[in-house]
Design brief:
globular, 309 residues, 2 strands, 2 domains, mainly alpha
């Protein structure tokens, strides 16, 4: 077992970085950045892409400011992606509650009835979900839920849906009746999205939403889940490893593809323009080889702008 990490003063942290061939142009500023962000959050989380090997020295010419710039880029990426994933989350909640009420029922007893889901296939998941819902009704955290319980004695689906997490909604969609799934996919109405495609997208978006919300490293994150092959994969002529596309399946570009199908077109175009400016402004402060590595980690192909076709 390795020895636990020792405590280092800011000055010792600087000396350690210098011993690994990292160039530090202004040590006092570097100390201020370490105080602001912490060594662990800024350096430890983002250093690997700048190193010759994982535990080795930094590549020739790498500066402390390069690490800081990648940290700042990732923080900005979390902000812009979280905002737009949450737009999708709000829309899915609205469409789901409408479809459920219209096709199944609009009372509390309807969404608490296991038979109103695909219970035969997803018994454990449905039971777990209903336990979460019943606990929320028993000890409501939301003012809206408390108001409806006190005033009407029950909580309608369109109120309950807004206190559920995106993960809850993703699971709920998975074990919902097929007619409900079809209605939600059809009503998105931006581009043609089928039930099975949406089934693959929601868990991926959920994982990336959580990474953004919890302040974890985003640009290189990959989920174990994958989105279905979409027309965008083919139009962009993305490379394949065997039968699987080498990018745009479980990486940050996969989120980009999901947003392309689930956001209103005007919103997606604005998102793409904002993202392009964000990347350009940060990439110009990084070495070209690092930019290439960052893009590869994100899963972004060179022609990624063409996604707005």
């Amino acid at each position: 077992m390795d020895s636990p990490k020792r405590f280092y003063t800011y000055e010792q942290q600087i000396e350690h970085l210098k011993s690994k061939d990292l160039i530090i142009d202004d040590e006092s500023k570097a100390v201020e950045y370490l105080k602001q962000y912490s060594y662990y959050a800024c350096v430890s989380a983002y250093k690997d892409i700048f190193k010759v090997s994982r535990n080795g020295n930094y590549k020739h010419g790498i500066r402390f400011n390069h690490i800081r710039m990648l940290y700042m880029l990732d923080r900005a990426l979390r902000d812009i992606f979280l905002h737009h994933i949450m737009l999708v989350e709000t829309q899915i909640k609205s469409l789901y509650s409408y479809a459920f009420c219209d096709l199944v029922g609009d009372r509390q007893k309807d969404y608490l009835n296991a038979n109103n889901y695909n219970y035969a296939v997803y018994q454990a998941s449905v039971n777990k979900f209903l336990a979460i819902v019943q606990e929320e009704l028993r000890l409501p955290k939301s003012e809206y839920v408390r108001y409806n319980l006190k005033t009407y004695g029950e909580v309608p689906p369109w109120v309950l849906i807004h206190v559920l997490t995106f993960g809850n909604i993703s699971h709920m969609y998975t074990f919902s009746l097929q007619r409900v799934q079809n209605r939600v996919a059809k009503d998105i109405g931006v581009r043609e999205v089928f039930r099975k495609q949406l089934l693959s997208m929601l868990p991926v978006l959920t994982d990336f939403r959580n990474v953004c919300a919890h302040g974890e490293r985003l640009y290189s994150y990959k989920t174990r889940k994958m989105i279905d092959d979409m027309p965008a994969h083919e139009v962009l002529n993305l490379s394949k490893k065997g039968d699987t596309y080498s990018c745009g399946k479980n990486d940050l570009f996969a989120v980009m593809i999901c947003l392309r199908y689930l956001l209103p077109m005007v919103e997606f175009r604005a998102f793409t323009i904002g993202l392009s400016r964000l990347l350009d402004s940060h990439f110009e402060a990084l070495p070209a080889e690092i930019v290439m590595d960052v893009k590869k980690s994100m899963g972004f192909p060179e022609n990624w702008h063409n996604i707005i076709y």
